[in-house]
Model the fold of this input.
Amino acid sequence: MTDIKTANPAGFGRRAFLKGATATGLAAATMPLGSRIWAQSGKVLRVSSYADIDALDPGFYQNGYNVDVMNCIYSKLVRYVPGREWDWELEAAEEIEQVDDTHIRFKLKKGLMFTGGYGEMTAEDVKFSFERVLEHDSPVKSDWGPLDHVEVTDTYEGVIVLKEPFQPLWTITLPYGTGHIVSKKAVMEATESGGNFGMEPPAFSGPYILEAWKPNQYVHLVRNPDWKGEAPGFDEIRILPMDDTKTAERAYEAGDLDFTEITLSSLAQYRGNEPKDTVIEEYPSLYYVWLGMNLDNPVLKDENLRKAIQHAINAEQIIDAAYFGEAEPATGMIAPGLPGHRETPLVPVAGDLDKARAFLEAAGGPPAEPITIDALNATVWKTMAEVIQAQLSQIGIEVQINVQDSGSFWTLGMESEGDRWKDMQLVLNRFSMLPDPYYATSWFVSDQVGIWNWERFSNEAFDKLHQRALSESDGDKRAEMYRKMQELMEETGAYKFITHEGTPVMYREGLEPALRPDGRPLFIGFDGET
Amino acid sequence: MLFYTAQRLVLSVVIVMVAVSILKLMLHVVPGDPAVLVLGPRATPELIERTREAMGLDRPLLVQLVTFFGNIFRGDLGHDVFTGRAVSRIVLEQLPYTLILITVAIMWSAALGIVLGAYSALRRNTWFDTLSGIVSVGTISIPAFVMALYSVLVFAVWLRWLPAIGAGEGFVNSITHLILPAFAIGVSWVGYVARMVRASMLEIMGQPHVRMARAFGLSERRITRSHILKIAVLPAVTLIGTGVAHLFSAAVFVEVIFARPGIGALIVQAVNERNYPIVLGAVLVTTGIIVLATLISDLVIALLDPRQREEL
Done:
């Protein structure tokens, strides 16, 4: 400061100010963004999310983007292991074991603290967290299946008691959304009834705490000062919501992000032309995309017509056109790596035009009127519908494409939403999935007809297998049941499975991301330099 | 003037109420059950029904509409169906971002457009006028979202001069985040304003009062500034006033492309999620602003133009 005064005895005049301001402005504008944005000390991880958070109570969670944050701010008994194969490992639990088909004994690690002075995590908190999901009729109470109660046997120990065996407990319930443990005292104080606390967690128990949430801007997580476990790799995490993955790609290229998911179309462009200092990895997705047919629609009542359509569709061509050849064809609903995945479907992936023509002849020829195909209004769906339209025209079936916005599309087959389901014929559908096959088959049982089972497929054998598989502890037998269930679906002719899509991601060299086998991020496991 | 203002105010309230009622009707007709969306796919039909009742969706449309307006007059715009937060709070959080964005966009574009238009008129039929015409028509024809995409590509991705996403934090950081979005929205307005001012100036330059001013020996600079430009900018003021709706539309795309918070991005997200309280609350506020902006521009013109003032 003294030097400046000596060098400028005339003082800080207008010209000097303008010069200084210009220089400062230029410096700010030309500074690399990474250092300009959120310039602070410590390691900061900047990532994108496909939506902004809208539920932070694990007992009432919706959607994976909320669970990504919950993973950071709450603890669970067990968690997913990052890597290429589905597995779990201990988190808040020091020990956990399946005592018998309906009893799971756990022992918590000592010294896990809730923030805000709510004390140490105890088995009572575990009991409260799990039972409130059922007591308050959570929309995701099915995650807890046949939970009866949690028995507290000691300050840190307890037993989860089920009414009947429930295999998804280890693959979905405990390591995912409703498996997170909240503070009984904190939640009771915040809500009185122990119900949904919404977006204001009364206490945290994970390696991070929610420092700030600016809706539609960012979620800011910082280290939990009370966290006694292994320190996470970053001091801060900034999660930026971006509905459009292409926007996230541009933000990454501009240096605003360290990690992001990318689209399959961009993956094709990035091959051999990836941004500087970037690693691109591909993970298989759990989503499943299929063409469904409404079994109760008069035109599609004829099984031969359905099978003609099923065999005329070439999934490989659809993937080439809509996903730039970057996704793998699906053999069913259940993705590779999960029990019940089939190596080959009954109907060839590439279809069989000769068989399609034979089925059509048996059906008495193509329908007199064009049949309709409903699809979402995004490019990928329109492209898929157009390819299917072209493929079906090869056997003389005319198709009319109806594109709809998401709100309209997702109620198309619901009986509660009027009579639109009656007119629905072909529908291009895509469901998300959790890492247990039961999650996929549960939408196609008879009870779901007119809700999410838009094909209106109802099969007693399928329903029985679905129930039996939930409690089957023999892995091989269980897998076989799910394979059989997919065969039953396919045999109706109402399903043509297309793809599981994929989850390509890109990140800075030096960053060590922790990802689930389906490419979803587990932020607390991220490490390295950005 | 006072009566005129009061009359316009009442009309503005009626316009807003009609617009929101039509929107409510449209939302009612469009398929998509907010209760299903808020509860997710695994909710039981009983829970969905209970939620529909709690959200008032089972009531007749007219009752819903009356309740909605009743709540508005009590300052209650409802609650976000997902987070449970007050819609008024959400809208007020997002609105400043959009207002700042469109204000900055219109300010820089109007400033540049007026200068460009005035200079073109004064240098009519010169190379500058021709160039200005080409640039103006060129910018008018480029939609804001195209300009947004290319400006991100050039200035954020290739040159890395400016950030690609977000709104930033702190004064300087927020300004750097504002430059590209405001540029993208404002570019086409430069052309509009320049064309409007040029045409208006050429018309006024030939009017008797200008010839009179010259006859009195006033300097060209003074004639241009006080007797031509002052009147010539009036159509531009009207254009900007009525153009607020277009600015909001442009902001929708630009906010999505720049992953920037704002009322446009909020509406897009809410429509996709069938988050009706937010759609209604946000549209109510934007309609109110658009109607108000039109009213203000009319009043400003009335104040600036003595002929109109006398008519009132």
User: Anything to note?
Assistant: The first strand of chain A starts at residue 44 and ends at 49. Chain A touches chain B through 53 residues (CB under 8 Å). DSSP finds 18 helices and 22 strands in chain A.
